[in-house]
Amino acid sequence: MMDYLKQRIQASVPTLFAVSRYLSIRPEGVLEGDLSRAVRPPVMFEGQPGEPALQVSLEVGADIGLLTVTGARGKQAWTLAPDVRGAVVGCPPDDSSAFRSLLLRLLGIRAVAALDRGETPSDVARALTWLVLRQDPRSPLADAWGDGPEKIFRKALGDQTVGNSDQWRGLRRWGRSLGVLIEAQASPSRGRMRVLVDPTCAIRDVLPLLLAPSAAGEWLGRLRTLIPVLGAPALAAEVGIRDGDVPPTLALALRKLDRAGYLSLVTSDDDRDAVTLQVGSEPAQRVAQIRVAAAGVARTALEAGA
């Protein structure tokens, strides 16, 4: 198991994006020293000052299957993993949304693979899965660790996932970068931020991979195979959740995409295979089929290339 919020707190998605773009046109690989000299904008170095941001980002990239490394320490050469090279090459240099979507999928796939081998998934994968499945999307979390998140995480997952303010800050950074969390001010007159679990962007970015219309349960299963932190059964069980209900965070995201024209939620009161979407005390919605709207896919592609 590799934990990203503890020994590798300074690893970041922007660093991985810059590294991946640099390696995408150098298929022969790049020595770590050369990579360090080429990719070192200070603005990418998030977290505690003085930590080797590039090195820990490379380690995380290798762990999730984005990067490969050969050679002895001190003379290591880094390359993009062969099965992701095409996806990275296709990412616009001035828009990281497609890359972030790829990274979210790799993070979840790595977590499920770890479970298959009897290992513990990364702390980021566990924490994001729990938030998606159990946090009320209408009840924001405080940005300050001691104002609520500390009690919530310790009760649900203990100290092994998110255990202090630095790790909470790191999880928020990962969640924002991967399209699962958003942050907003509680009110214009108050400076404190609130953290909302909202995977709408994460789902929108994979719609081109979910074009075939299907029964709602089947469609959601395909979605969770693509993005396991949205509730793949193995990951859900790992964080102590075994019910098969659609969580409110996912229900709200699907409704938002339906209203925005990206999806069509076909309702039915009679279909036994329909799934129930419900957010809080709002009326439940029985959805028999989920269809990706062609116009929505076109908009997704346009936004990714903007």
From TrEMBL:
> Mind telling me what this protein is named?
Uncharacterized protein
Species the sequence originates in: Lentzea alba
Specify the superkingdom. Bacteria
